[in-house]
Amino acid sequence: MTNWEERWQRSETPWEKGRAAPPLEELLDDPGCALYRARRVLVPGCGSGNDVRELARRGIGATGLDLSPTAIARARCCARAGDEDYLCGDLFDGVWRGDREFDAVWEHTCFCAIDPGLRPAYAQVLADLLPAGGVLAGVFFLTPWDPGEDEQGPPFGATRAEITGLFEPWFELRKEQVPARSYPGREGREWLTVFARRELPNPGVADPVPSA
Q1: Measuring CA to CA, how many Å separate 11 from each of 21, 68, 70?
Q2: Fold for the domain defined by 4-197
Q3: Do 109 and 45 contact (CB within 8 A), yes or no?
């Protein structure tokens, strides 16, 4: 298991680019982007908060969450861009959430960083987090290995079919595209999506459970 705090302490963070993800900027350049209608966006695995600050700069309230205290400390040291805050915690344990409510999530590099065996749980957590109509927007790094990197991960690759299969029990895919903007070297290797949380089931009917 990767010790993310140790990686941050040693500055072994090749994913840290010092700026927001270009696909997020591309998405937000559309004034009709669903994230603009969100009251609060959660950014899991936020690192030093580049994407959080970009959302806040665009007038969108955002909360960054990360396992690493060092990453969160760095994020909090940055100049505020708007309505943003940061939490240190494990997405899967729920303790970090308290009474906070979110109606959107921005996914970028968290999905590819976690063990693939946790991906069904990740989809379930986001489904539980968001209300009906809530937005899951993200850029998925399908082939995340740079030259010379170990393809055993992390990061771990994915396919469009795997991603949609994981999320479709709870989410409807509303938008998809290969982003026109990417970090250098990621061109054509990412998938930009917008999912919407499906209507909650009738009272007494359980949420669907994805097949193994």
Answers
A1: 19, 12, 10
A2: Rossmann fold (3.40.50)
A3: yes
What is the rounded distance in angstroms from the CA atom of residue 99 to the CA atom of residue 86?
15
Say whether 187 sits in a helix, a strand or coil: coil
Distance between CA atoms of residues 47 and 139, nearest Å: 16
Q: How far apart are CA 162 and CA 152, in angstroms?
A: 17
Could you report the per-residue pLDDT of 135-167, keeping only the tens digit for each?
999 999 888 666 555 566 678 889 999 999 999
Q: Are 186 and 157 in contact (CB under 8 A)?
A: no
- The phi, psi pair for 175, rounded to 5°, reads -155, 140
pLDDT tens by residue, 92-147: 998 999 999 999 999 998 999 999 999 999 999 999 999 999 999 999 988 866 65
